[in-house]
Amino acid sequence: MSFNATTQAANVMDTLYASTDFSSLNWAEQKWVAWYIWWGSPVLATGMLSFLMHEVVYFGRSLPWIIIDAIPYFRKWKLQPNKIPTPQEQWECTKQVLWAHITVELPTIWLFQPLAEAVGMKTWQVPFPTLYTMAWQIFFCMFFEDLFHWAAHRALHTPILYKYIHKVHHKYSAPFGLAAEYAHPAEVMILGMGTLAGALVLCFFTEVHFISFWIWVIIKLFQAIDSHSGYDFPWSLQHIVPFWSGAEHHDFHHMAFTNNYSTSFRWWDRIFGTDDKYLVYRKQVKAAKAKAGSKEEFLKAEQELMNQVLAEGLKAENAVEAQSGKKTKVQ
Ligand SMILES: [Zn+2]
Ligand SMILES: [Zn+2]
Description:
- This protein is mainly alpha-helical and about 325 residues long.
- The chain folds into two domains: about 1-40, no CATH class; about 40-330, no CATH class.
- Helices cover about 70% and strands about 0% of the residues.
- It is built from 14 helices and no strands.
- The longest helix has about 35 residues, at about 295-330.
- It is elongated.
- The termini are far apart.
- One zinc ion binds near residues 170 and 253.
- It is found in: Membrane.
- This is Fatty acid hydroxylase domain-containing protein.
């Protein structure tokens, strides 16, 4: 960039920050302003902030799960212990996810700032909202996304949408952290709407700052990756917050091909009865544990139950695909 262009870009931001009292800003707000001035364009600054955060958080959060998968000590907490992803599988998955990020997500960088401005979301502006405001707005986004995801995910299990879109995500009947975003681009867009729409809707009722949305997306990425991790530790969040879904809930969805459609919370699946098979399975595992004379005996009985669920899931998946075939032929 030439000196003139840099000066011009800086001038644009100087105009935007003309009335800002920099001495009143905290450390994070000062860094925020420095970032926007450095890029010289709110569109690029907001877009790159989103893209880089996504890459750093997605792969950064997946890394501990890759390490855990490589250490046999952790197998006792693996939900489907006989299904450990191979390094090749993980590498293939990484390449696919990265390719989708670069080809689908990177170009959308230019769309976010205009969209945010259209609904009145603050982006480059400082100061940030109070912690209380951020907290309730983040919770609202979480609540909204969970309900949206429950409904959209159920729709993705209807024959046509499953066959042409959602089947990609169900490649792994025993998921792992990196597989959280392993999906058809259309699915990424559909389910991504749930992450975005809550914040946009909120903009019509109150002032929303991009920093709240940005933090919410970080939480959402942690939730998505952890729920695909395939591990249920005694210290996992669902053992502390009973309505939290966690890996134990979503792993069953991949194994059984049905039930447990929501993301963060268990309540919608409970209210709408889309966790009936999951509850039966949990009861059966509990009974097997009570009945077994030794740990080995229990693990054997649990594996048999898993095999049964997997076999039923495969049958259900074939039935859904067959249905889509018939419908396609009729059309
Ligand atoms: Zn699904
Ligand atoms: Zn999944």
